[in-house]
Specification:
The structure holds 2 protein chains of 2 kinds. By secondary structure, chain A is of the alpha/beta class. Chain A is built from 12 helices and 15 strands. By secondary structure, chain B is mainly α. At the A-B interface, strand 2, strand 3, strand 5 and helix 9 of A face helix 5 of B.
Chain lengths: ~350, ~450
C-alpha cells in the first residue's frame, strides 16, 4: 500500500483515529477496505504535472494505508520486491534524462557524503549505499549521477523529479512522509552533544547550565533545545551544522548539538572533540523517493534487505566505527502491513 | 575711562576740523585709497591662497587619501577572491593565486598603516580612524581563518570549507563595510576640498570693485578741482587695481573650469570604476564560494528562500554593475561608461562590459553543470580549463584597472591645470596692491604739496 492521500482515506482515518487496540485493528481493516473503494472511484490526488521521473502506476494493490494519517512509526515502509517496476523501467529507457540513477547527495558531510579533494571522488557511508543500489537496479555501481542537494531542497528535488532519490543523511519524519516516500531505515541516530576533551559537560542534562550551545538553524537539534535547554544559552545558530565545529574551535561555544551521525563526522575532523552522553532522541535515516514511485521504494527496500546482511558492516567499519561506537548493526526493517 | 573718552572725542574733533579744509580732505582721501587698495590686495592674496591650498589638498592630500582608501577596499576584496580561488584549486593551488592573496594582504596592511598616519590630527576624521582601527584588528583574524581553511582543505576535510565561509562572512559582513565607510569618508573629504577650491572669492572681488570706484571718484574730483586730467600716482593705483581684479576673475574662472573638469571627468569616473571593481571582486568571491559551499548554505527567508545564498549574492553583485542597455544607468559600470569622456576611456569600459557579458554567459554554463550534479565540470568551468569564468573575471579586472589608471591621469592633468591657474595670484596681487597703494599715496601727496 502507498501513503497516497485521498479525501476518502482522510475522512476514514479521522473517523477511526480515536479507536485503540483490537478495535483499532478491526477499524483499520474496515478503513482499508473503504480506502480501496475510494481509490477505485475517480477521486485521486494529483500526480506531478511535469514529466518527472519515478511515477509508478497506482494500481489497486497500492491501496492507501490509513496509518499514514496517524503516523506513529514513519520508518515503516513498503514490503520489499526485486521486480523491475514501472519507475525502474522508466529510468532505464527515459529519453529526457540520462539512463542513470540520479541521486541527490551531500558533498560536504564528512564520512557520509563528501568530495575527496585529492581524488575529486565522492566518498562516504551514504555514497556506499548509493553504489549498492545502483549495482542492483542498473547493474553497475557507477551508473549514477550524483547531484548536490542542499538540506532544505531535498523534498522539492524529489517532488520536481530533479532526482530519482535522495540518500543524504535524511531523517524519516512524519512531516516529510507527507511529501515523499521513505525506504526502510538504514541507520539509527539521535541528537547528541559534541564537546571538547576535558569539558565538564556530561550530556544532555544539568551540566549544560550556563553553557553556550551551537546548533544549525532549522534543525531538529534546535527544536529540541527550544523545548528543553537545561539552562544553556542556545542563541548561537549557524547555516550549516559544520559551522558549529568552527565556532567550537574558535572558542565561541562550549558544545555542539547535532545528530550523532553528523557529530561523528565532525569528531572525525578534530581529534580533540568527541560525542558525549546518550542520544536524547531516536531518529532513522532513510532513502527518500517520490511518493508515487512505489515500485522503486519496494526495490530499494529489497536492496536494503541484502545490504543489511552484506555491505552495511563493511561500510560502517570503514567510515563510522572510529567515532560512532556502540552500534551493533543496522536498524531492523519495519514494514507496513499490506 | 573719562580720559579715553576725551581722547576719542579729541580725535573726532580733529577729523571734523580736517574735513573742513582741502588739505585735510585730501589727506583723508589718500588714507582711504591706500587702505582700500591694500585691503583689496590682502583679500585677494588671502582668498586665493586658501583656494590654491584647497586645490593642492585635492591633488596631494584628499585624492591620494581617497585613492588609498579605495586601494584598501580593493585589496581586501581581492584577497577574499584569491583565497576562495586558491581554496577551490585545493592541493594544486597555483602559485600566482597564492601570491596574489599574499600581496593583497600585505598591501592592505601597508595602506592601513599609511592611512592611520595620514588621517591622524585632521578634522572630521574620527570615523576614518575608527574604521582603520577596526580593519587593523580584523585583518589578522581574517588571515588566520583563511590559513586554517587552507590547512584543513589540504587534508581533504570539509571543515576547511566551513572555515573559508567563516572568513568570507567576516570579510563581507564586517571588513568590507568598514573599508567602504573609510572610502566614503575620504571621498567626502575630497568633495569638501573641491568645494573649498572652487568657491568664488566674493570678498576680494567686492573690495576690488569698491577700491576702483573710489579711485575713479577721486580722480574725477581731482579733475574737477584742478582741470588736470592725469594724476600719475592715482593712474598707477587704478591700473594696478584693475590688473589685480582682472587677474583674480580670469585666474579663478580658469581654475574653476579645470577643477570642474577634473571632478566631472576624473573623480566621478574614478568613483564609478572603483565601485564596479569592488562589485566584480565580490561577484567572483561569491561565484567561487558557491562551489566551496556546494549547496550547504541557502537563503533562510524572503523571495529567494531556499536558493543558494552565494549564487544569490553573485547575482546581486552583477546587478550592481548594471545591465548595459543603451542610455540607462542602472549600475556602476553603466555609470562608468556614461562618464568615460574620451576614446581610450570608453574603450576600456567597453572591454570591461564585454568581458562581464561573457562572464555571465560562462557562469550560466558553470551553474548548469553544477545543478546537474556535475561538480567537476562546474569546477572546470569556474577555475579550470573549460572556458572558465575566471578568464572573463581576469579580463574585467584588467580592463577596469587600466580604465582607473587612465581616469586618474585625466584627473591629475585637469586638477594640476586648475591649481596652475592660481599660481602666483596671491603674491602678484599683494605686490601690485602695494604698488597701487604707494601710487595712491604719492598721487595725493603731490596734490597736497601744492598747498605748502
Amino acid at each position: 500500500m502507498t501513503r497516497n492521500r485521498t479525501p476518502g482515506a482522510a475522512s476514514a482515518a479521522g473517523l477511526f483515529s480515536r479507536l485503540r487496540g483490537w478495535g483499532g485493528v478491526a477499524a483499520m481493516a474496515v478503513g482499508c477496505v473503504l480506502a480501496v473503494l475510494f481509490v477505485l472511484l475517480p477521486v485521486r490526488s494529483g500526480g506531478p504535472a511535469d514529466g518527472s521521473v519515478g511515477r509508478g502506476g497506482p494500481g489497486i494493490a497500492d491501496a492507501t494505508h490509513t496509518k499514514a494519517e496517524k503516523c506513529e512509526e514513519p520508518e515503516r515502509s513498503l514490503r520489499p520486491s526485486a521486480d523491475d517496476g514501472e519507475t525502474v523501467k522508466d529510468i532505464k529507457t527515459r529519453k529526457d534524462k540520462p539512463n542513470k540513477l540520479i541521486v541527490g547527495v551531500d558533498l560536504n558531510s564528512f564520512l557520509w557524503g563528501f568530495r575527496n579533494p585529492s581524488t575529486g571522488k565522492l566518498e562516504g557511508f551514504d555514497i556506499d549505499l548509493v553504489r549498492a543500489i545502483a549495482q542492483d537496479i542498473m547493474g553497475d555501481p557507477d551508473d549514477v549521477i550524483f547531484r548536490a542537494v542542499p538540506t532544505n531542497q531535498r523534498v522539492p528535488a524529489i517532488q520536481s523529479g530533479q532526482v530519482d532519490m535522495i540518500v543524504r543523511a535524511m531523517t524519516i519524519t512524519c512531516d516529510r512522509a507527507k511529501d515523499v516516500a521513505f525506504s526502510t531505515a538504514y541507520f539509527r541516530t539521535g541528537q547528541q552533544l559534541l564537546v571538547p576533551d576535558g569539558s565538564k559537560i556530561t550530556g544532555y542534562d544539568g551540566s549544560l547550565q550556563g553553557k553556550k550551545l551551537c546548533s544549525a538553524s532549522g534543525s531538529t537539534a534546535l527544536t529540541e533545545l527550544k523545548k528543553e535547554s537545561h539552562g544553556a544559552d542556545i542563541s548561537t545558530t549557524v547555516p550549516n551544522q559544520l559551522d558549529c565545529l568552527v565556532r567550537l574551535q574558535l572558542g565561541e561555544v562550549d558544545a555542539v548539538v547535532t545528530d550523532s551521525a553528523l557529530a561523528a563526522g565532525q569528531a572525525a575532523q578534530d581529534p580533540t572533540v568527541s560525542l558525549k552522553g546518550e542520544t536524547f532522541t531516536e531518529e532513522y535515516y532513510g532513502v527518500a523517493m517520490h511518493k508515487e514511485a512505489t515500485d522503486l521504494v519496494r526495490r530499494v527496500n529489497q536492496v536494503l534487505e541484502d545490504y543489511r546482511k552484506n555491505g552495511w558492516q563493511t561500510s560502517y567499519k570503514k567510515w563510522l566505527a572510529d567515532d560512532l561506537k556502540d552500534i551493533d548493526g543496522p536498524p531492523p526493517a519495519k514494514y507496513v502491513t499490506d | 575711562m573719562p580720559e579715553r573718552r576725551s581722547a576719542w572725542a579729541e580725535a573726532q574733533e580733529r577729523l571734523r576740523a580736517a574735513a573742513t579744509t582741502e588739505p585735510g580732505r585730501l589727506r583723508i582721501i589718500g588714507a582711504v585709497l591706500a587702505v582700500l587698495v591694500v585691503t583689496f590686495g590682502a583679500c585677494t592674496a588671502w582668498q586665493m591662497s586658501d583656494r590654491s591650498a584647497a586645490a593642492d589638498d585635492v591633488l596631494h592630500r584628499s585624492q591620494p587619501l581617497s585613492a588609498d582608501a579605495a586601494e584598501i577596499y580593493r585589496s581586501l576584496a581581492d584577497a577574499n577572491t584569491a583565497a576562495a580561488s586558491g581554496f577551490l584549486a585545493g592541493g594544486q593551488e597555483p602559485a600566482e593565486v597564492r601570491e596574489r592573496y599574499r600581496d593583497d594582504i600585505a598591501m592592505a596592511s601597508r595602506k592601513l598603516a599609511e592611512a592611520a598616519t595620514n588621517t591622524r590630527g585632521s578634522t572630521g576624521s574620527q570615523s576614518s580612524i575608527a574604521q582603520i582601527t577596526k580593519l587593523n584588528a580584523l585583518l589578522p583574524t581574517y588571515a588566520e581563518r583563511v590559513e586554517t581553511a587552507r590547512t584543513y582543505n589540504r587534508q581533504g576535510l570539509p571543515l576547511g570549507g566551513a572555515y573559508l565561509r567563516s572568513a568570507n562572512a567576516l570579510m563581507q559582513q564586517e571588513m568590507l563595510p568598514a573599508a567602504k565607510r573609510l572610502y566614503d569618508a575620504e571621498r567626502e573629504r575630497l568633495d569638501a576640498d573641491y568645494d573649498d577650491a572652487r568657491s568664488y572669492p566674493w570678498a576680494a572681488i567686492a573690495v576690488g570693485v569698491l577700491a576702483l570706484a573710489v579711485l575713479v571718484w577721486a580722480q574725477r574730483r581731482n579733475y574737477q578741482r584742478t582741470n588736470r586730467v592725469f594724476n600719475h600716482g592715482l593712474v598707477t593705483a587704478t591700473a594696478a587695481a584693475t590688473v589685480v581684479l582682472l587677474w583674480l576673475v580670469a585666474g579663478h574662472s580658469v581654475a574653476y573650469g579645470s577643477l570642474n573638469e577634473s571632478y566631472d571627468q576624473g573623480v566621478k569616473s574614478l568613483n564609478a570604476l572603483n565601485s564596479a571593481r569592488i562589485s566584480t571582486l565580490q561577484a567572483r568571491s561569491s561565484e567561487n564560494l558557491t562551489l566551496v559551499a556546494r549547496g550547504s548554505v541557502t537563503v533562510p527567508d524572503g523571495p529567494n528562500a531556499g536558493k543558494d545564498a552565494y549564487d544569490i549574492d553573485y547575482q546581486q553583485r552583477m546587478r550592481e554593475l548594471g545591465d548595459f542597455t543603451d542610455g540607462q544607468v542602472r549600475g556602476s559600470l553603466d555609470a562608468a561608461r556614461e562618464l568615460a569622456d574620451d576614446e581610450t576611456g570608453s574603450a576600456r569600459v567597453s572591454e570591461a562590459v564585454d568581458a562581464v557579458k561573457e562572464w555571465q554567459k560562462r557562469h550560466k554554463a558553470a551553474r548548469a553543470a553544477d545543478t546537474e550534479g556535475n561538480y567537476d565540470l562546474a569546477l572546470d568551468r569556474v577555475i579550470g580549463e573549460d572556458n572558465p569564468t575566471g578568464e572573463s573575471f581576469d579580463q574585467v579586472d584588467e580592463a577596469l584597472r587600466k580604465a582607473l589608471a587612465h581616469e586618474k591621469a585625466d584627473f591629475q592633468q585637469a586638477a594640476e591645470d586648475g591649481r596652475g591657474a592660481m599660481t602666483g595670484l596671491p603674491v602678484g596681487a599683494a605686490s601690485l596692491a602695494l604698488l597701487g597703494a604707494t601710487g595712491a599715496v604719492l598721487g595725493i601727496g603731490r596734490r597736497l604739496s601744492e598747498y605748502r
